[in-house]
Amino acid sequence: MSIAQQLAEVRRQLDGACDRLTAPSPASLDACAHDLESAIGQLSAFRPNPGDAQALEQAWHVQRSFLRARKLMESAAEFHENWARVRGAISGGYTATGEAASIVHQGRICLQA
Amino acid sequence: MSNLLASLLSSAGTLEAYGQVLETAQNNVANANTPGYAKQRMDLYALPFDPSGGATGGVRAGKLETARNEYAEAAVWQQNTAMGYQEQLVNSLTPLQSRFDITGNQGLPYALNKLFQSFSAWATTPNSEATKQTVLNQAQALAESFRQTSVALGAQATDAENEIHQTVDTINQLVGKLANYNQIALQGNKDDAGLSSQMHATLDELSQYADVHAHFETDGTVSITLNGQTPLLLEAKQYQITANLAMPQDPPPTYPSAPASMHVYGSDGSDITGKTTGGQLGALLQVRNQTLASFIGDATQPGDLNRMARQFADRVNQVLTSGNVSDGPPAVSGVPLFTYDATNDAGVAQTLAVDPSVTTSQLATIDPGPPYVSNGIPLALSQMATPLQDADKIDGVSYSQFYGQLAGRVGTALNDATDGQQVQQSLLAQAKDLRQQYSGVSLDEEATILIQFQRAYQANSRFITVLDQLTQSAIDLLK
User: Fold this and answer.
1) Which of A61, B58, B63, B94 has the CA that lies 20 to 30 A from B462?
2) Does B45 touch chain A if contact means CB atoms closer than 8 Å?
3) What residues does each domain of chain A span?
4) Are residues B49 and B80 located together in one domain of the fold?
5) Is B473 among the domain residues?
């Protein structure tokens, strides 16, 4: 597989992650993490030849796909973070330092692996 | 006896509450395909149970609350605004880019190149009337090209101004529509789900045009502000915005004859142009007042096209007038070739012309020196193509390179906008998906989901950080 083809494969994985992030759910984020991890694995093993114009073009595409994935991740995280803050403020008011109170989940048990 | 009555009342209230829940469910089914409609949920709350005090417990229906999460709605509007901005940038910059040909086969770079070629030919045969005539012809072609580019950019600015007027009109119309909905809500229809869906659909549309913030009041009306500050709608009262061309007076304009900028005003007359940066309106203001102004000028700048035209004309005229047509005695000096309106720095490109009185016999060929060079003037002029001295450059580069930079600026802005549009499409789809996910979700379910999301983000953010470094390294290694 040529360098350009390797990069095209990384790009495909990142675009897949973007598709998942467009409809973010805990399950799709888990799958997205798998895509990102796989992309990292491929890029870590990457041994490019400087001056390969075709590969460089693919690398730019990879970076663009990555930036899109990052933006989508940030946007979804921000959505939930802000909402948690708003909800905390609505239900618990503000702390002495002026921050929104954290959400209290009364009577709930959360099991985390 | 009183306790028995209380129990009966409690049972009746409970049945009524559950009846309303069923009604809400039926309404959701009936409106499942209505655009802008969000599922509604009836919140029930427990009444205090204290038999000794006559409090018999049971449940009552809370106010009919729409399950639409205003927060998720606002997130969609925010992404709509960003999408409108990027889309409008692409729409406005695409025709602008076509004004800047970079192939060198037409327009300004072509005319510039032909004039430089004619200078070189003149240096080779300095006494040829034909080559001098070619210089005059190519100079006229270059001046014409400057004028055409300036007129075309001016027309583009006019188009943007018209679009700004239209966009402001559309915003006012949509807010007017919402004012009518507010009237209906104030007439006692605040819980009308159909009305609510119409309001939300209109807000969806409005948010593409500008950065609007909506707040639903308890009386069912919606209040709207522009850029979070300028009121557009409060209850049933609409506050219209306007747009006009204006030359700022404070501080006084450095270039008073330059084209005026477009300004947007709130209903109280306050200038809100600087704050209007989102949506289609924000993009149009950006293109008209920043991008186009950087070429054609405004109160604070002459515009790069005018600067280029003036500096080029001045340099050619300076070289020609420093030379002689004949040695004499007495020696006859050369005459300037280009003319323009020197009273208007922002109108140089549009008024640039070759002095019609100049003939081939008045074009200076001799550089009297020292050292004396018989073809020194055309030689000096031809060196402007690949300049070695600062006087032949503009901003430290050749005129062709400078033009390339102008074209590159538009090209880069268009590329960024196209990329931004693609990303924004995904972000808008994401915001709509999140809105859909939360529509009708109970707070208990939501709490569980939030915890799951938090865990997933933590896992992903580590990968994102590593990928950021790896993608940049890949590019650096390939360069």
Assistant:
1) A61
2) no
3) 3-92
4) no
5) no
Summarize pLDDT for B167-180 with one digit per residue, the tens.
999 999 999 999 99
Q: Note the ipTM here.
A: 0.86
**Chain segment B72-118, per-residue pLDDT in tens:** 889 999 999 999 999 999 999 999 998 887 777 888 999 999 999 99
A79 chain-B contacts, CB cut-off 8 A: 72, 75, 431, 434
Does the beta carbon of B468 lie under 8 angstroms from any beta carbon of chain A? Answer: yes
- What are the residues facing B326 on neighbouring strands? B332
Q: Is residue B457 part of a domain?
A: no
**Placement of tokens 């639903």 in the chain:** B216
User: Does residue B156 share a domain with residue B20?
Assistant: no
B176: left (phi over 0), alpha (psi -120 to 50) or beta: alpha
**Per the domain annotation, does B123 fall within a domain?**
yes
Q: Do B426 and A55 touch (CB under 8 A)?
A: no
Bridge partners (DSSP) of residue B242 are B265
A30 contacts B456? CB cut-off 8 A:
yes
Do B85 and B11 have their domain in common? no
In a domain, B379, yes or no: yes
- Name which of B333, B304, B305 is nearest B319 in CA terms: B333
Give me the number of domains chain B comprises.
Answer: 2
Structural domain containing residue B271? 68-441
Q: Is the peptide bond before B259 cis (omega within 30 degrees of 0)?
A: no
Output the pTM of the full model. Answer: 0.82
**∠ at Cα B249 (B246, B255), nearest 5°?**
80
| B135 plus B243 within the same structural domain | yes
Tell me which residue in B419, B422, B450 faces A84 most closely, judged by beta carbons: B450
Residues A40, B470: C-beta atoms closer than 8 Å: yes
Asked if A86 reaches chain B (Cβ–Cβ under 8 Å), the answer is: yes
